[in-house]
Amino acid sequence: MFKAKDLGIDLGTANILVYIRGEGVIMQEPSVVAIQKNTKEILAVGSEAKQMIGRTPENIVAIRPMKDGVIADFDVAQAMLRYFINKSKSRFTLIKPNVVVGVPTGITAVEERAVKDAALQAGAKDVQLLAEPMAAAIGSGMPVGEPTGNMIVDIGGGTTEVAVISLGGIVTDRSIRVGGDEMDAHIVSYLKRKYNLLVGERTAEDLKMKYGSAYFSDSAEDQKRRNLKCSIRGRDLVEGLPKNIELTGDEICEAMKEPVGRILEGIRYCLEHTPPELSSDIMDKGIVLAGGGSLLYGLDKLVRDETHMPVYVAEEPLTAVAEGTGVVVENLEKWRRILSNVNS
Known about the structure:
- The chain has helices at 47-50, 74-89, 109-121, 132-139, 180-195, 201-211, 220-227, 249-255, 257-272, 276-285, 299-307, 320-330, 336-343, and strands spanning 7-11, 15-20, 24-30, 33-36, 42-45, 60-63, 66-67, 70-71, 98-103, 126-131, 150-155, 160-166, 169-176, 197-198, 229-236, 242-248, 287-290, 311-313.
- It has 344 residues and is an alpha+beta fold.
- The protein folds into 3 domains: 7-31 and 67-135 and 320-343, 2-Layer Sandwich (Nucleotidyltransferase, domain 5), CATH 3.30.420.40; 146-178 and 260-317, ATPase, nucleotide binding domain (Nucleotidyltransferase, domain 5, 2-Layer Sandwich); 180-257, Actin, Chain A, domain 4 (Alpha-Beta Complex).
- A hairpin with a 3-residue loop joins strand 1 and strand 2.
């Protein structure tokens, strides 16, 4: 086989997903790279590297090269991209692939250039950028090309992208540098402040995923979740020794209140700046939530109560952006106008 298989990449703060043309999403791994400090040698990428976070000896460091949806460490991001591009490319051919990368709408020209350069130096032939909310909307099966309003909220690890899309373009958008990572950080600082307990980011993420909630209604299930107790272990900041405490679901919800509130503000901002004709479409069709953050318990109910609109979680929220880049990769000519809008 001599033809390169084009790739769609969701270059997320928390996870990187790779879509291969004609095959679908074939890779989903954490955006983490483990490096030998003195030699800069790459020891592990993805899941293997994530296992090392908070557990490495002094001469090894686990780095997350993406921060707030953009490249924070160019060399490491390039090495990570090269690893994933080569891993998918080696399955077929040595010919360089065309690559479509999902990026936040709030990205600056410098950050945009960094993504393109990193992908080109990692082995791509040509790099096109696709706005993440557009990718998430396409990947969620929304009719983005029609003259009707479609509202998407993509909550990732580093950013939340809110956009209203019509006729293949973004009418109103808001890129907030708040996502799952910020929720984890707030859980860490809450435990430090209230219990003098220090926990790592992996422990905070586990707490959020298993016991975290954005909102509690009066239902019996929600009240049970609110009073649910979980045991958590960390280091006592006063005595310096390991310590166990019990947390309730209500406390974890309280810890994440501020980042969840900022996501709601972004949704309100977009709704307030949407033309009236499109607002009535959204009222009828509802708001679609995508990204890993959309899986936070009760978030859909909270958005529904705050906006008084129907709210739906995408069928495959974790892969929506990658699937969207994949749809574009499958027919680059058809979607050329959308890409040129982003890349201009």
